[in-house]
Design goal:
The complex is a heterodimer of chains A (269) and B (295). Chain A is an all-alpha fold. Chain A has one domain. Chain A is built from 14 helices and two strands, in the order H-H-E-E-H-H-H-H-H-H-H-H-H-H-H-H. A two-stranded antiparallel sheet of chain A has the order 1-2. In chain A, helix 3 runs parallel beside helix 8. With 295 residues, chain B is an alpha/beta fold. Chain B has two domains: 214 residues, 3-Layer(aba) Sandwich (Rossmann fold), CATH 3.40.50; 74 residues, Alpha-Beta Plaits, CATH 3.30.70. Chain B contains ten helices and 13 strands. Chain B has a six-stranded mixed sheet with strand order 5-6-7-3-8-9, sandwiched between helices. In chain B, strands 11-12-10-13 form a four-stranded antiparallel sheet, covered by helices on one side. In chain B, helix 3 crosses helix 4 and helix 4 packs parallel to helix 5. Chain B is elongated and about 75 Å long. The two termini of chain B are 35 Å apart. The chains are: A mainly alpha (269), B alpha/beta (295).
Chain lengths: 269, 295
């Protein structure tokens, strides 16, 4: 069953030109961002840029960089699902004996595979960078803090599921992309500001972003330099190891999938 | 004979609009059942319900006397409204997706593309096809898996005459092979030429149904004239077996009572000293029956 859904999604996705373009763009932008950073030789007391490319800091730094480009993965998912509404192919699948839950399942599979791709990309680049730049290697240094890469996997999954919910709600690709960006960078931050500090971190976009926080090396630098950065407060209040935060993200994912399923069930496809 | 589809008191409304009201009909194995009705009569809604796209508000339907479980849909090939495919994929890839969805082996793709004369275009992108080819691909998709039943909604809609003939021939060929076909159309000529049975819908209700030939086999119209039409008119007034007479274009249009034929009117005129210069019988078309019913 899962194999069948994967095969169907593979045919639809792999031959969709915008998918190939955006996924290539995602890969290139991420690699360029990393390569660009590796050439910066800033070294101030308590902070060295080169250190970010060494184990164990590389895990936190690379996942943080990769999180900038999650928006591209969300756009891919919105386009793929928007296509189904545009071409009315969800309707064709129902005619061909698919159930609503199979429709949600096949899209969730696409999301999982995109998350795994992003995960593997960060894993490989972090390992390569770590082995190149770290002078003293040991098992404990290599894998210290490496758990954050699983947080990154969860983050990509959460953002794409959120994108899926939006496009299923509005059934329109362009509108959904615009709304996602507005929500992520404008609506939620404004809305969040009305709530207390303790409550703010539980908003979905904030919560998902906090899974890959600003690297500790930067935070130390901020504290040392007395730079007044508005996000510092929220960043320092987050603990990525917190199982509670991860659990809440998982609950959000499940809720978004459930709402998507209910919407598909009620929609005139 | 096996009942392929049984529809019982089906109703569907969208807000205040009643798309289908208390609809009941049956389709037996091997029938080509036409659902005929003007636009907005509930044809597409009916087919959407029986193919699982739309859920009814009331009533039920049963496929193959076994209910409406989704596994039964695998035995049905459907083409609702217009074909829905991925425009950026080739014909072959589009059909491959359907094969995977319906658990059909992809070796069948070439077969259905052959039946619909699309084999040579199998690697063309869907959006490069003409409208007629797209309709034929829709039929090819419905034929995948050699389904026992075909559900077709306006399969020749907006096609040119050549395209209509192509699609119609494919349907007739499938009917000859013993497939049960349920076809919705507002094109009377299509139903008349393709279907064995017909149900006529108006405002979501079934207002007539039966065998197409029987629906057509109602009172024939006899057209007569003579060199002296005034005298003929006087004579016709005396004929007691005539239901109705109308005079137009120097001809009399007559509807006879049940059991009387053109021979009887010819004999009656001759017996009254009139030699008819013209006597023809005209069958009322399904169109006239249909228009009469939906008035």
């Amino acid at each position: 069953m899962l194999g069948k859904l994967f095969q169907i999604e593979y045919i639809k996705t792999s031959l969709f030109k915008p998918f190939r373009i955006i996924i290539t763009l995602h890969f290139l932008l991420y690699v360029i961002a990393i390569l660009f950073g590796s050439n910066i030789n800033i070294s101030i007391p308590g902070f060295s840029f080169r250190k970010l490319y060494m184990f164990p800091d590389v895990w936190q730094y690379f996942t943080w960089i990769a999180s900038w480009f999650n928006i591209l993965l969300v756009i891919i998912i919105i386009m793929l699902i928007g296509n189904e509404y545009n071409f009315k192919t969800f309707k064709q699948q129902i005619i061909n004996s698919f159930d609503n839950y199979e429709i949600i399942a096949e899209k969730t599979i696409s999301i999982c595979f995109l998350s795994i791709y992003a995960f593997c990309l960060v894993l490989c680049t972090a390992l390569i960078s770590g082995f190149i730049f770290t002078s003293e290697l040991s098992f404990s240094i290599v894998f210290q803090n490496s758990g954050i890469i699983l947080s990154y996997l969860l983050q990509t999954l959460a953002f794409m599921i959120f994108g899926m919910l939006i496009v299923i709600l509005f059934k329109n690709t362009a509108l959904s992309i615009v709304l996602f960006i507005l929500y992520r960078f404008l609506i939620e931050p404004i809305f969040r500001s009305f709530f207390s500090k303790d409550f703010r971190i539980f908003f979905p976009s904030r919560l998902f972003s906090n899974l890959t926080p600003l690297p500790d090396a930067f935070k130390v630098n901020y504290e040392n330099s007395n730079i007044n950065i508005i996000t510092t407060e929220e960043i320092t209040s987050y603990s990525p190891e917190s199982w509670l935060h991860h659990s809440i993200v998982i609950v959000y994912i499940l809720i978004f999938i459930f709402i998507s399923f209910q919407l598909i069930k009620k929609q005139k496809l | 004979m096996l009942t392929i589809l049984s529809v019982n008191n089906l109703s569907k409304h969208y807000g205040n609009i009643r798309a289908v009201q208390d609809l009941s009909f049956q389709v037996k194995k091997g029938q080509v059942y036409g659902i005929l009705g003007p636009n907005g009569s509930g044809k597409t809604t009916t087919l959407s319900i029986i193919t699982g796209i739309v859920k009814q508000n009331n009533g039920s339907f049963s496929w193959f006397e076994k209910g409406n479980h989704k596994s039964l849909r695998l035995k049905i090939g459907s083409f609702i409204e217009s074909p829905y495919f991925y425009p950026y994929l080739s014909l072959y890839k589009n059909l491959e997706i359907i094969c995977l969805t319906k658990n059909i082996h992809s070796s069948e793709i070439n077969n259905v593309l052959g039946i619909t004369n699309l084999l040579q275009r199998k690697h063309s992108r869907y959006d490069n096809l003409s409208k007629g080819m797209k309709q034929r691909l829709g039929l090819a998709a419905a034929l995948l898996g050699n389904p026992e039943v075909l559900v077709l909604d306006e399969p020749t809609g907006s096609l040119d005459p050549e395209g209509i003939a192509d699609v119609r021939n494919i349907i007739l060929e499938q009917a000859k092979n013993g497939k049960t076909i349920i076809l919705a159309s507002h094109i009377l000529d299509e139903v008349e030429k393709v279907c064995s049975h017909v149900g006529i819908l108006k405002n979501g209700q079934l207002i007539a149904s039966g065998v197409v030939n029987q629906l057509l086999k109602q009172q024939n119209i006899i057209i007569i004239s003579s060199s002296n039409n005034d005298k003929l008119g006087e004579v016709l007034k005396k004929a007691l077996f005539i239901d109705c007479v109308e005079y137009a274009n120097n001809e009399y249009y007559i509807v006879l009572q049940q059991g009387y034929t053109a021979t009887d009117i010819n004999k009656f005129a001759h017996d009254n000293g009139i030699i008819l210069s013209k006597i023809t019988t005209e069958k009322p078309s399904l169109e006239s029956q249909f228009l009469e019913l939906i008035k």
